[in-house]
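Section 5: illustrative case.
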């Protein structure tokens, strides 16, 4: 056990989250998504699991350590319902709530057509399969950055000694 690390984040998930860089994407999927097959195309190459959690519970744990990208609109994506892309199912509402809590305000996920979502998932850094049994419990998060504690942004990189 580690201090200040959500106990739901297992060693494999923590490794992947830490290894990811700015702009890399992470898939959080439900149990129906072809996560094993998709994960073979990712950077990690192996399926990560948080199988005893709902999508919202997994998102809550991940977002406790994972900064979302603030420079792009597609910081978080959701799989659209086939033939009904505007409808937001309860599972997506719950994950949106977790995003809003982590971000300290409302930032809406971008809807992505089902097959396009799978294509994007194959290009991700890692795939986490949850125990979510509700349909359309699939999401992609884009990693952001953690600013310096003083809030400054260096205008140029110092030269190496």
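Designed sequence:
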């Amino acid at each position: 056990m580690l201090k200040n690390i959500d106990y739901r984040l297992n060693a494999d998930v923590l490794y992947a989250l830490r290894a990811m860089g700015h702009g890399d994407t992470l898939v959080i999927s439900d149990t129906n998504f072809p996560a094993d097959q998709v994960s073979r195309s990712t950077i990690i190459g192996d399926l990560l699991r948080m199988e005893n959690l709902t999508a919202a519970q997994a998102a809550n744990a991940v977002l406790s350590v994972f900064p979302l990208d603030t420079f792009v609109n597609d910081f978080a994506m959701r799989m659209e319902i086939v033939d009904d892309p505007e409808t937001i199912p309860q599972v997506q509402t719950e994950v949106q709530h977790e995003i809003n809590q982590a971000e300290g305000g409302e930032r809406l996920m971008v809807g992505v057509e089902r097959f396009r979502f799978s294509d994007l998932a194959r290009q991700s850094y890692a795939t986490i399969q949850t125990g979510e049994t509700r349909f359309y419990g699939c999401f992609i998060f884009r990693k952001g950055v953690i600013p310096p504690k003083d809030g400054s942004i260096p205008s140029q990189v110092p030269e190496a000694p």
